[in-house]
Amino acid sequence: MKVKKRNNKQLEEFNLAKIITAVSKAYASCNEKISKIVIRELELIPTRHNDDDVLKVEDIQNKVESILMHLAPYDVAKSYILYREKHKESRLVKERIDYMNKYSNSSDNASTSSETDSNANVSLKNVANLEGEVYKTTNRIIQRQRMKDKLNELYPNENLGEQYLEDLNNHIIYVHDEASTPVLKPYCMAVTLYPLMMDGVGNIDGVTPSAPNDISSFSGQVTNLTFLLSSQCKGAVAFGDYFVALNYYVIKEFGELWYEKLDCISTSEHHLVNRTIRDAIEKGMKQFIWGVNQPAGNRSYNSPFTNVSWYDKYYFKSLFEDFYYPDGTQPKWEAIDTLQRMFMKLMREIRLIKPITFPVTTMALVHNDKEYLDKDYKELCAEEWAKGGSFFCYNSNNPSSLASCCRVLNEMSDNTFSSTTGMTGIMTGSCNVITLNLNRIIQDFVNSIKDQFEFHKEILKDNLPLPKNPDDLDYKEIVLYRNQIMKLFPKYLVNILKRVYRYHIAYKTMLYDLEDKGMLAASNGGYIYMKKLYSTIGVLGYTEAAQFLGLEISNNKEYKKFLQLILGTIKEENKAYSIRNSKRPFLFNSEAVPGEGLGVKFYNWDKQDGYKVPEDQNLYNCYFYNPWVDNTSILDKMKLHGKDVSKALSGGQAAHLNLDTHLSKEQYLKLLDVAKNEGCNYFTFNIPMSECNDCHHIVNAPIKECPVCHSNNISYYTRIIGYLVKVDNWSKDRQIEFKQRKFYH
Ligand SMILES: [Zn+2]
User: Fold this and answer.
1) What is the CA radius of gyration of the chain?
2) Do residues 312 and 377 lie in contact, with contact meaning Cβ atoms separated by under 8 Å?
């Protein structure tokens, strides 16, 4: 009999002497001597096993414990149990100290050194992010126990708590940012700034005495608010009405028609430097932009993930037509338009000083299927891209698709768009994200039907030959029987979904309870309510699942049919299982998640467990096209992210169109039309930026040599997933992926 050591690697021979010593110590601590009967029982342990049997240290200790409980005095058994506990505790402490030392000593960046849920949104490694890392494993244990208890309470006698753990351990599902905190928090939220305008940030920080009254106090408070709200959730905080709110304070300082006086001097003869109204507004914007890129202590030194949106005239009208400021006035389009244009230009210019990450910006444009309604904004969008601006574009023929604000109350609409990275609505978001590992799920399914009568009946019905050996469906056969597999798959998927909805309900029920107890500051302050947040079904591993079925990842009918089948099934079920209760609604949406770290995890887990994974990748793809091959044109990528597929995803998926150079305004205008025609409603162009590591000159494009000092020591910035960040900060695996990414020209 062999014994497996705790590090899971070494095996050693069973050593009776070691056990007798430990047990004797337990006896000695009670002033007793080990009895002969106990020794004989201990000697019998190996005789009950074969020579090749492998037992864990824990198993043997359990046996010893049970022998002592039966045969030794109570005090001795207790002493042995305490001795085990004490050792367990010191092992945990030692293991954590070792990890902290390893983290500090390693030259890897913070993302690579992270044990779990790594994130490239942290540029410096220090005690603050190490502190966040140390407890992640404990956080996960607490979160899982809490979920298990709640599931068993809500659904007694169904063993759902155990099933939840099993699904997580089998890597069929993944709960996002599960380990980031031991407490319950919603995932991400697009809030309204109305409470800030009414009361100031004081209603959630308990300090600030009044609402802002000028540009500077607004900019300070909204920056504080970003940090406060980010401490109340795990992911992004979005301000869809940032410009509307800012305008209120510009008016307070410079009057209603401020936008006609931008170049007027606003300083007096006592100022040493003269500044215009434009300068004063820009100063406020800069305060916010630089502010939100600061590392947050409560987020392990990550900057808070922040979004703002620009709306064209029609979106603005749809969202804010009935909006009134606290003083009873209304925002004017000319003012918002001016602020948005100033901000776009400013972001573009600041990124040439420092390629900052936040806020993630989105331009929302309305069309009527034939043309974009606001031609000026279409032009502006193309022009900004051509000048090197980097932002998302969301376009839709339904201006209410972004609205979940108090006015429109339209969140029940199928078109409501709410993505966890590019949130561009108001009063929406996600309270929890559980992602399905579709590659593993489809392979589990194929394994499960091999010997099923129903499957063979389908095959016979279509006059196909029966598999040679049903226990070993080979790859050729999987491709041959693909249609049959796909016909039967939705039923299997729905069974998993049914469980996941209940996992979501358990989590959200706990959030509702917490909200009722006044524990969620964002709700207390009136910024967002739990009922507005979706429970999100994420998907990942879909291109790998398609490859497993022998499909080519390109703009072809069969592959699109596959995506529609999977995403369409999820969409239908989301609708069917949503609970539209007015007090405590449970609404589900779906999103092809970016999977910054998860793409790597799913890939590695599946590979280790013997599932088929593409050998020429090191992580799972998070686009509908393959970003690592040359054969998909920009047009095909837009088609793959077009209406056929994207209409099945309420949370969307951003197409990242990787280019190695900027296009002209005319080219971007054409691509905007392609996006509209194809129904590619959410996308961005991703052109790497370069920073010379010697003279710190920044160029808006990927370069090999610095034009100023001719150094070849260049760092790149590009969108890892939704957000722009320095490649040097990416995890090791993501850096490999960056090298394989194809950038077009
Ligand atoms: Zn240089």
Assistant:
1) 29
2) yes
pLDDT digits (tens, 9 = 90+) for 441-473: 999 999 888 778 888 888 888 888 888 776 667
Q: At what angle do helices 136-154 and 482-516 cross, to 10 degrees?
A: 90
> Does any domain span residue 32?
yes
Q: Residue 150 falls within a domain, yes or no?
A: no
pLDDT band at 420 (very low <50, low <70, confident <90, very high): low
Give me the pLDDT at residue 649, please: 76
Q: Is residue 650 part of a domain?
A: no
- DSSP per residue over 274-332, as a string? --BHHHHHHHHHHHHHHHHTS-BGGGTTBPP-EEEEEE-HHHHHHHHTT---TTS----
Question: 703 CA distance to ligand 1 centroid (A)?
Answer: 11
Q: Which domain holds residue 236?
A: 188-426
The per-residue pLDDT for range 710-742, each reduced to its tens digit, is 999 999 998 877 778 888 888 888 888 888 888
Across the range 203-222, mean pLDDT stands at 96
Picking from 83, 103, 123, the residue at the C-terminal end of a domain is 103
- Tell me, yes or no, whether 246 and 355 share the same domain: yes
Percent share of the chain, pLDDT over 90: 65
CA of 684 to the centre of ligand 1 (A): 28
DSSP string of 641-695, one letter each residue? TSHHHHTT-TT---EEEEBSS---HHHHHHHHHHHHHHT--EEEEE--EEEETTT
**Percent of the residues in the chain that have a pLDDT greater than 70, as a whole number:** 95
Give residue for tokens 């404990």: 138
Task: Looking at the structure, tell me whether residues 288 and 386 fall in a common domain.
Answer: yes
Whether 210 and 80 share a structural domain: no
- CB-CB contact of 118 with 112 (8 Å): yes
pLDDT in tens, 214-235: 999 999 999 999 999 999 999 8
Residues 77, 105: Cα–Cα separation, whole Å: 42
99: Cβ–Cβ under 8 A, 6 or more apart, which residues?
115, 133, 134
CA of 695 to the centre of ligand 1 (A): 4
Q: Are 46 and 14 in contact (CB under 8 A)?
A: yes
Boundary of a domain, candidates 426, 449, 480: 426
Residue 625 Cα to ligand 1 midpoint, Å, equals 36
The pLDDT score that the predictor gives to residue 411 is 33
Look at phi and psi of residue 561 and say left if phi exceeds 0, alpha if psi is from -120 to 50, else beta.
alpha
How far is residue 467's CA from residue 618's CA, in Å, rounded to a whole number? 32
Question: Distance, CA 353 to ligand 1 centroid (Å)?
Answer: 13
What backbone phi and psi angles, to 5 degrees, belong to 685? -100, 135
If one counts the domains in the chain, the total is: 2
Are 90 and 201 found together in one domain? no
Q: How far is the CA of 406 from the centre of ligand 1 (A)?
A: 51
Helices 36-44, 16-29: axis angle to 10 degrees equals 150
Strand segments (E) across 575-661: 588-592, 655-658
Helix 36-44 with 57-71: angle, nearest 10 deg: 150
Q: Which amino acid, one-letter code, is at 619? A: L
Give the orientation angle of helix 57-71 with respect to helix 16-29, to 10 degrees. 40
Query: Mean pLDDT across the stretch 28-48?
Result: 90
What's the pLDDT at 12? 83
User: In this predicted model, what pLDDT tens digit does every residue of 326-341 receive, in sequence order?
Assistant: 999 999 999 999 999 9
> Which tops the pLDDT comparison, 155 or 8?
155
Which pLDDT belongs to residue 273?
Answer: 94
pLDDT per residue as tens digits for the range 60-99: 899 999 999 999 999 999 999 999 999 989 998 998 999 9
Report the separation in Å between the CA atom of 205 and the middle of ligand 1, taken as the mean of its atom positions: 44
* Ligand 1 centroid distance, CA of 383 (Å): 28
Ligand 1 center to 352 CA (angstroms): 14
pLDDT above 50 (res 403)? no
* Cα(286) to centroid(ligand 1), Å: 26
Residues 80 and 199 in one domain: no
Residue 533 in domain: no
Among 110, 229, 241, 116, which residue's Cα sits nearest to residue 523? 229
